[in-house]
Structures
1.
Amino acid sequence: MVDKTYHVMGMGCASCVTHVKSAVKDLKGVDICDVDLESEEMNVRFDENMLGFNDIKKAVEDAGYGLK
Ligand SMILES: [Cu+2]
């Protein structure tokens, strides 16, 4: 497991946070995902053997937001 912090773009309210969180938590191999609206930071703990940044980025983008 690794812990990473990413920057989420395009969130405007608490329901955006919920959207992003649930999209990432649905990914296989993700243990913890916390998103902070004010700092736009996302902390993710995941199994790096099962997925990587690009998979997380895609899930966030599919939900309608950006990730870097
Ligand atoms: Cu919103």
Note: The longest helix spans residues 14-25.
2.
Amino acid sequence: MKENIYNTSFAELKSFFIDLDEKAFRAEQLWNWLYVKGIDELSGLNNISKNIINKINEQYYLSQFKVSRSLLSKDGTRKWLFKLEDGKEIETVYIPDKNRGTICVSSQVGCSLSCSFCHTGTMKFSRNLSTSEILGQVMYVKNILKDWNNKTDKKKITNIVFMGMGEPLLNYDNVIKSINVLTDQKGLAFSKRKVTLSTSGVVPKILDFKEDTDVNLAVSFHAAFDEIRDILVPINKKWPIANLLDALKEYSKKRTHKRITFEYIMLEGINDSIKDAKELVKLIKPYRAKINLIPFNPWPGSNYKASSPDQIKVFKKFILDEGKLVATVRLPRGDDVLAACGQLKSF
Ligand code: SF4
């Protein structure tokens, strides 16, 4: 059976050519066609002979994603619902900004972790995405935005965040393989400083992650007390805050130059008091960290209310003034089309 070529690493492509008794530099040529020029079919590769192109086509295929629905927010954020080859659907978001453009990619169909503030968490977990399905999201958006062969300062897509549907560390191998392709400087060439993986706290995989890749790490922290985090992020029952922080300590020892982002959703009356802020500062102070406060984005059927802008200001001020930590407030983007943080769900 033919393989989707986006599932193939550079090393695997090299072996493919060596097995054909071809020179290894053919892999570089094909890689360039795929990830620098952004071809959408495996033909017309004018520096590769017809005979070799036929052999490539015998082994691999290249196909574009099919779109079930696309939405455009009034702030320019775009969201696509993609139909995969087996009919399952996932969502991908593009967030344009003044000096950058970010794609928020999904890593699973649905999610098994049922975080209570998250729309995806209400879906059943269906399956992991393959490497080609993760990369396919980026390739589609690059095609639609015509973001090929642009100079670095003209690129429309500069950042990739693994913050869409699913827990990326529960699809570890495919996510790491896709990160390696995204950050390969002979190909898509995303900077490792511009790729961020966000986890709800899969402790053993954080320890693997620190060894296997050097992209940024964000943690869906959301509560400073176990009894609250158990409800918001139920994986906390398996790996409570103390375990998670121990793993992050190990991560920091290895990745000393990296600042960990602690994401904290602001929910009225749940986790937004000064008592919460005090505990948060106490826990996070030993880390090279940044706290990203996220105003809650409601979705149909959600049980929470967003903290008021005034309460978010007070919370942030405490972290900055008393905690002397870096804290930012994430601006909601695309919330009118349910494309903002925590709102993704396909149905
Ligand atoms: S926040 Fe992330 S891990 Fe939690 S349910 Fe939503 S998609 Fe899954």
Note: The mean pLDDT is 94.
